[in-house]
Amino acid sequence: MEIRKEYGSDHIYYADPFYKIAEQYASTEYLSNVAHRIYDTMKSADANAIWMLQSWVLEKNPLLTTDMIRSFFTAVPVGKMLVLDLQAEQKPFFNRTSSFHGQPFIWCMLHNFGATLGMHGSINVLNEDIASASTFSKSSMVGVGIAPEGINQNYVIYEFALERGWDYSSVNITEWFDIYTSGRYGVRNSFISSAWQKLVKSVYSFRGTREISGKYIVCRRPSLKHIVWSWYHFDDIDDILVDFLASPVNTAKGIELYKYDLVDITRQMIQNKVELLYERMVICLEQRTCPEFEIYVQQFELLLNDLERILGTNDKFLLGTWLENAKDLATNENEMKMYEYNARNQITIWGPTGQVYDYAMKQWAGMISDYCWPRWKYFFDELRETIHSHEFFNETECQRNIFKAIEEPFVNDNKLYRLNANGDTISVAREIYEKWKYFLVE
Q1: If we measure between CA atoms, which residue out of 347, 369, 349 comes closest to residue 360?
Q2: Is 25 exposed, middle or buried (0-12, 13-18, 19+ CB in 10 A)?
Q3: pLDDT of 187
Q4: pLDDT class of 63 with cuts at 50, 70, 90
Q5: Using CA atoms, how far apart are residues 140 and 81, in angstroms rounded to an integer?
Q6: How far, in Å, CA of 287 to CA of 276, rounded?
Q7: Are 290 and 387 in contact (CB under 8 A)?
Q8: In the chain, what percentage of residues exceed pLDDT 70?
Q9: Tens digits of per-residue pLDDT, 182-211?
Q10: Residue 7: which pLDDT band, with cuts at 50, 70 and 90?
Q11: Residue 108 and residue 45: Cα distance in Å, rounded?
């Protein structure tokens, strides 16, 4: 009530019982009582209270039965609860709960975990499923939302999803993207239009329940156990880059957005090449003799060097910006050190001893040269020794050493990184494409 006195209220209050907790005493009566008590408490403070909760509260609790879930939702008057169907583009819950038993819900796209930067999305799923959710039998859907952990990537996915909030019906995807690109760059261009239609059919064509992390071998902690997987042909990105480079945008409105997208697509091409190279390296090493090992290591390093170069041509892909923004929040020297430590920690080991490695990893200039490549180089050096000595490679021990030698020192460092882009994006992207276009084609 004190908060309401100070700030006022929109009458919506958030509470998520049982989230990530396996409720051991669950029963229909218990679930009903919990829901009733929570809402009753809100109502005692605000007669117009509406309880908002996310569907994961119940969806991810393995001990709750269909009857228990029904008792939970029906314990609150219809209209006094607002449910966020949090990851409806992959794991909708409204269709398993009779539209949350009448409680209003918002169809949400989650899309991103950890604010990672890899290109991915499900345009066709959004186009079809939002429309079908709104016409579902006795549908109580009242809106469309997004629930990502980071929005500074894959902008087209969020723009498309949020536009559906104004019109739930499906649209002509080809026409929508033609309008989107002309608005984004301020020009109609057959090459750019072709590139975006190919993006729709490749990186933005995902269907399924597998969590797409947006991370790639480049940014993963070195291991021989990573699985290379994709829902599209890696070579599609090469063709898209060709289209992007064929006719650069030169309008004042669109040039910066064009360059950003060009960095994004070039970055994706390089990462895909690394995926294929890594896969080849693992197969070679599994045979216990790998005469191509040194060549693979050199190619790996050259690819990461070029990734660093293209990222460095755009202000939006610089580690220095992230670190300086964190330090700018400080009011004294101790706070500055703490904020920088936390900023570095979040995008690397996420915890003092590496509790969640690479969860929020970023493909930024500075990260590639001073964190990603040094980790892989250390890993390759250790592998090289075991190959020559014919000894067992202890990957767990190697990773512990990487933590001590690279990961922890990086988090505790205070090296300054540049805040301004360097180099011409278009010329660097063209050079990179010509250099790698025939490398490991599928």
Answers
A1: 347
A2: exposed
A3: 86
A4: confident
A5: 11
A6: 17
A7: yes
A8: 98
A9: 999 988 889 999 999 999 999 999 999 988
A10: confident
A11: 28
**Residue where the block lists tokens 């079809």:** 128
240: amino acid identity, one letter = I
Q: Which two tokens stand for residue 289?
A: 């003799």
Pairing of strands 12-14, 105-109: unpaired
Q: Over 90: is that where the pLDDT of 370 sits? A: yes
Q: ∠ at Cα 381 (375, 387), nearest 5°?
A: 135
Say whether pLDDT at 21 is over 80. no
Task: Measure CA 186 to chain center.
Answer: 28
Handedness of CA 359, 355, 210, 53 (dihedral sign): negative
Both structure tokens of 266: 């070039």
Distance from chain centroid for Cα 346: 14
Tokens encoding 169? 């019906």
CB–CB of 53/81 below 8 Å? yes
Query: Which amino acid is present at 293?
Result: F
CA–CA separation, 187 and 393 (whole Å): 55
CA dist., res. 205 & res. 232, Å (int)? 8
Q: Alpha-carbon distance 67 to 81, whole Å? A: 18
Q: What is the largest CA-CA distance in the chain?
A: 75
- Spatial distance between the Cα atoms of 259 and 177, rounded to a whole number of angstroms: 18
Q: Is the pTM of this model over 0.85?
A: yes
């997208």: which residue's tokens? 261
Asked if residues 78 and 50 have their Cβ atoms less than 8 Å apart, the reply is: no
425 vs 135: CA distance, rounded Å: 46
The pLDDT of residue 342 is: 97
Q: What is the spatial distance between Cα 105 and Cα 86, in angstroms, rounded to a whole number?
A: 10
CA pair distance 296, 299, nearest whole angstrom: 5
pLDDT band at residue 37 using 50, 70 and 90 as cut-offs: very high
* CB-count exposure of residue 106 (10 Å: 0-12, 13-18, 19+): buried
Beta bridge partners of 108: 145
Residue-by-residue DSSP string for 364-380: -BTHIIIIIHHHHHHHH
Could you give the CA distance from residue 104 to residue 84 in angstroms, rounded to a whole number?
9
Q: Which strands, in side-by-side order, build the sheet including 105-109? A: 12-14, 50-54, 81-85, 105-109, 141-146
Contact 384, 316 (CB under 8 A): no
Q: DSSP letters of 412-428?
A: H-------S--S-HHHH
Q: Is the pLDDT of residue 133 over 90?
A: yes
Q: CA-CA-CA-CA torsion for 396, 374, 153, 247, nearest 10 degrees?
A: -130
